[in-house]
Amino acid sequence: MEINRDLNPLHVNEEYAKTTIFGTRIASGLATSLLRRFSELLSWEP
């Protein structure tokens, strides 16, 4: 992942990720944290 330079093969290598229990690449912790925070901000109500 370019944002945090996370080069874990589980995040960046599809062929490797296919061999894991997930079966595909997964998002990094930073990406999921940012997604959660943005979703909280976008659902803000005055």
From TrEMBL:
Matches recorded under InterPro entries: HotDog_dom_sf, MaoC-like_dom
MaoC-like domain sequence ranges: 5-33
Segments passing through the bilayer: none
Domain of life: Bacteria
SUPFAM superfamilies: Thioesterase/thiol ester dehydrase-isomerase
Pfam families, sorted: MaoC_dehydratas
Name of the protein in question: MaoC-like protein
